[in-house]
Amino acid sequence: MLDKENIKLGIAPIGWTNDDLPELGREITFEQCISEMALAGFTGCEIGNKFPKDPAILHSYLDIRGLQVASAWFSSYLTTAPYKETEQAFLVHRDFLYAMGAKVIVVSEQGKSIQGQPDVSIMQNKPTFNQQEWELLTTGLEKLGALAQQKDMRIVYHHHMGTGIQTVSEIDRLMAETDKGLVSLLFDCGHLYFAGEDYLAVLKKHANRIHHVHLKDVRDEVLTLVKHEQLSFLDAVKAGIYTVPGDGQIDFEPIFKELATMNYKGWCIVEAEQDPAKANPFKYAKIARSYIANLTGI
Q: Which domain of life is it from (predicted)?
């Protein structure tokens, strides 16, 4: 059983408003989003583009709702741009999260990524890195990890559909070629399931590197459509590929059991990018919270 003292439950704002698809949830305010997060029973969140960028202002909204900032996404371009450009943006991001009390920084390499390209099939055009790009990525991530350590923080790498780190073998290589003291891993079963990969194998093999968890479910009928129609990642999201735990194909009981076995300590973040016009975000937040409570007692 998961230890309630070790686990914090949060939810991402991407179910209310989508940063990559701003037309989704355009009408939903920041205040509605965070109020419904708290009402659904979550104590933390990640950050979206509608969130205030001033830490003092953001604290004033979140504190009274009992919400903490768990982390926020950072796009690195270590394989395609000079390192210094990524470093400068990272330091601003790090310092903002530090001011919000976060302990982890979600990093995903977006060099060569197709996840934001609306007309490119997500199943057919996955990017890969050559040897030089792998070296740029691993050395760059270690540098970012050292910068995070300056603030007693850590980076957690987010494997993601449509990027150069998507498969089990790519995750394995990334972990093997980076310093475990500098580069940690974010575990996201939804992205691994979408990619056709063994998510439990990743969880078990890299238990000592996992310091952040995204809880994301997948609708099989939409996955079949994505493959048949060769949809892009963004079109897959609009079609409803992702949903909250308890509403899709993934059985989360073995995942929670493995997290308990490895004595996981940290945030578990419900993250399900959906069209809020089709999937009411408050309703689905409640579905997720109830499902997690029934499985874990948390």
A: Bacteria
Give the DSSP letter of residue 142.
H
Counting the structural domains of the chain, the total is: 1
At 280, is the secondary structure helix, strand, or coil? coil
- CA–CA distances in Å: residue 276 to residues 23, 50, 62, 82: 10, 15, 22, 38
Give the CATH number, domain containing residue 155.
3.20.20.150
* CA 50 to mean position of chain CA atoms: 17
Task: Flag whether 2 is in a domain.
Answer: no
Q: Is residue 1 part of a domain?
A: no
Host H or E run for residue 252: none
Mean pLDDT in consecutive groups of 10 residues from the start of the chain, 298 residues: 91 96 96 98 97 98 98 98 98 98 98 96 96 98 99 98 98 98 98 98 98 98 98 98 98 97 97 96 98 96
- Overall residue count recorded for the chain in this entry: 298
SS3 of 33, please?
helix
Q: Is residue 274 part of a domain?
A: yes
